[in-house]
Amino acid sequence: MNRSARRWLPPLVVLAAIIGGWYALAYSLDNNFASSDGSALIVPPPHRLFDGLNSATARRIGEAARISLSTAVVGFFAAAIVGVALGIVMSWSRALASAVWPWLIVLQVTPIIVLTPIIVRVVGPSFGARVLVTVLISFFPVASNTLFGLRAVPRALHDLFTLARATPTARLLRLQLPAASPSIFAGLRVAAGLSVIGAIVGDYFFTRGTPGLGRLITYFFLDTRAGPMFVTAFVASLIGLAFFVAVAVVNTLLIDPWHRP
Amino acid sequence: MTNLAISRDVVLHAANVSHRFGDTPALDRVSLAVHRGETVAVVGPSGCGKTTLLRACAALLAPTEGQATAGDSRVGFVFQEPALLAWRRVDANARLFAADDDGVLVERLLATAGLASEHRKWPHELSGGMKMRLSLVRTLAARPSLLLCDEPFGSLDQITRHRLHDEFAALQREHGFAALLVTHAVDEAVYLADRVLVMSRAPGRIVAEVAVPFEHPRRADLRWQPDFAALCGRVAGALAGSA
């Protein structure tokens, strides 16, 4: 088996297994619950995924994707800024880090629904609220990886900058942030996926304005339109994948040439 | 603490420097002076406080007692590891602390160190010897008048180490810096230094000083001369007696 086959065959085998499992699930569920016109109520089989997907529905999904993508992009960049800033601030002092860290974990594990009323009061119920949910869900890996990366700078390199009488700003910009960048990018890759999840979750709670993909999935679910519901979910997954790949590409261009773990 | 009066010729002066890490004493009343253009080597067993002494001399560590001062000297430090910035190419690492108008100096140093053709490489693409040479180039590009070297050749194979000894000596002749060289290799100390200070095991103190009479520039075959071997034997004897 050549290298290319070795690389692509395993994921293709898994894909075939997933499609096989999908068919098995679709027919075991919807043989009993199929609607009067024969369309699936719960899980459409892959070849009937686009049943009921007319141009109006496609336009709705496209518009919802635009809204969710905007939310995810703004939320991702805000989470990146907040996460890196928090990591930098915590790196200044272990006392400060130990004071702030437990509350960041509490915030991270608190169900977003509990915060919904507060968010509504602070930023209102529409786009800003969705962005805030996205930030809350995705900033943590950036903050923790930034802190880890900044703390992992070797002492000899710090000594080098101390001997050169570098200002704190020069030390941060010319030493600490570049040295921590592989770690920061690892956090950003995780945050990329989480920001799309955050945008979808935000949709569920904050319904004012044009619906995003999360709201549309709920709508199709309540309307028992399994095909469009799954297509919408796939679009959400594609956006998440595109985010992940975009960060990975930037990582490949900026970090991979020099970084050897 | 009193300010030390340094003569114009002395670029580094340590007076009764003692240091403790918690309850563990690391250095015990170490005094030394390094003069302009001179190379002083410090040899001692592992863990005797050589690096601690060097860090105190560089003001990277405040000694528990005593004082070390480099006065107005521009201090450069060569670490055990090359300590290169992995995200900067070879030429960018070399220029890290050089003045903006020292581009010609950086290019010349890179050429002298045999790195001119490697200037666009990343540090991970260099061999261990090349990394060490680049570390030396970067330090010298900042035009130090005093170089503190912490076992800079310790991780290299013997052939590379001997070649770098000669490059180091050539650069020193050209740039005229003084050097305090910490090493555990007796032959390296004798080959490069004008004086060798022998430290006891921890807490480290200076137990012997051996003057090295060989003229500069020294040739590689000096290492195989009986006088050189005899002097190495003297230093090694002092070292063994201190342990």
Give the topology.
The complex is a heterodimer of chains A (261) and B (243).
Chain A: H1 3-33, H2 55-92, H3 94-109, H4 112-123, H5 127-151, H6 155-163, H7 168-205, H8 213-222, H9 226-254
Chain B: E1 10-21, E2 24-35, E3 39-43, H1 50-57, E4 65-69, E5 75-78, H2 90-94, H3 103-112, H4 128-141, E6 146-150, H5 158-175, E7 178-183, H6 186-192, E8 195-199, E9 206-211, H7 226-242
Parallel strand pairs in B: 3-7, 3-8, 5-6, 6-7
Antiparallel strand pairs in B: 1-2, 1-4, 8-9
Helix pairs in contact in B: 3-4, 4-5, 6-7
- Tell me roughly what share of residues is in helical segments of chain A: over 70%
One letter per element, helices H and strands E, the order of chain A comes to HHHHHHHHH
The strands making up the biggest β-sheet of chain B line up spatially as 5-6-7-3-8-9
**Largest interface chains and counts:** A-B, 16 and 19 residues
Question: How would you sum up the major sheet of chain B?
Answer: 6 strands, mixed
The best one-word shape of chain A is globular
Give the N-to-C terminal Cα separation of chain B. 32 Å
Mean pLDDT of chain A: 89
What is the alpha-carbon Rg of chain A in Å?
23 Å
- Helix-strand pattern of chain B: EEEHEEHHHEHEHEEH
Number of domains of chain A: 2
Query: What class, by secondary structure content of chain B?
Result: alpha/beta
Overall geometric form of chain B: globular
Quaternary form: heterodimer
The poorly predicted ranges of chain B are 1-5
- Classify the secondary structure makeup of chain A into a structural class: mainly alpha
Question: Between the first and last Cα atoms of chain A, what is the distance in angstroms?
Answer: 29 Å
